[in-house]
Amino acid sequence: MCGYFNAHNQTWGGSQSNNRGTAVENLLLNNPNLFLLNAHKTTTHFSVATGAFSTIDLTLTSTSLASSLSWKIHPDLPDSNHFPIIISRNSSQPKNVLSSPKWILKADWPLFTTLTAETNTRIIPPTDSIDHDITHFTDFIIRAAEKAIPKSKPSPKNRSAHWWSSEIKTALKSRNYALNRYKKSSRPSSPHRIQKTTSKDQIPPPFC
Q1: Best exposed site among 6, 27, 166, 171 by fewest CB in 10 Å?
Q2: Domain ranges, ordered by start, for the chain
Q3: pLDDT per residue over 136-168, tens digit each?
């Protein structure tokens, strides 16, 4: 169970405790099968009014599931004062999709020329089908290329989001810059600058 409890408590890293925080703490103490998944002292909320960071969004789970779950926050504030919470199963992490190797244009062209110089019937036997002839010739070229032209190594392939654009990238960069400046500054007007850099028309939420 994950939600906006508005529960402040020093047990999970708050600077103070309130009635809601005390109630949740008692619930955890009186129910040994409940487990608080939040990472200690990891803030989940940013107040534009006060400029304070707090931990008021809590994630509760059963003790039997706790060891198989990972909990973290996303560093961006997608048009919200609450940091998105990401919960994943440790035992079912998706495998990285690797990109296909590509030819590198640093070929040994003299070797390639030598390997492809002889295209007689011994190397490429004729057939009664033009499709088979094309297939044999293509295989012949590829075999020569594999000996003379290196390939790149497979690398993890990132899945691009259909809504991503250069405008969103610029808006996120500006907002993160404002947030980092605020963390280093004590000016009271700074929190409002962060919210001005976020727009529903510019930055769609990355999570459903």
Answers
A1: 166
A2: 2-96+156-196, 109-148
A3: 888 888 888 888 888 888 777 666 666 677 887
Cβ atoms of 20 and 157 closer than 8 Å: no
Say if residues 88 and 69 touch (Cβ distance below 8 Å): yes
Angle between helices 109-117 and 130-148 (to 10 degrees): 150
pLDDT digits (tens, 9 = 90+) for 62-104: 988 888 899 998 888 777 889 889 998 886 545 566 777 787 8
Task: Kindly list the distances between the CA atom of residue 52 and the CA atoms of 15, 65, 104, 182, in Å, as whole numbers in the listed order.
Answer: 10, 32, 52, 10
- What pLDDT is attached to residue 190? 53
DSSP string, 57-98: EEEEEEHHHHTTEEEEE-S--SSSSB--EEEEEGGGPPPPPB
Q: Token pair 């991503």 is at which residue? A: 164
Strand 53-54 with 45-46, pairing: antiparallel
Alpha helix stretches (DSSP H) within the chain: 19-30, 63-66, 109-117, 130-148, 166-183, 190-196
CA atoms within 13 A on the CB side of 141: 5
Place of tokens 């940013």: 46
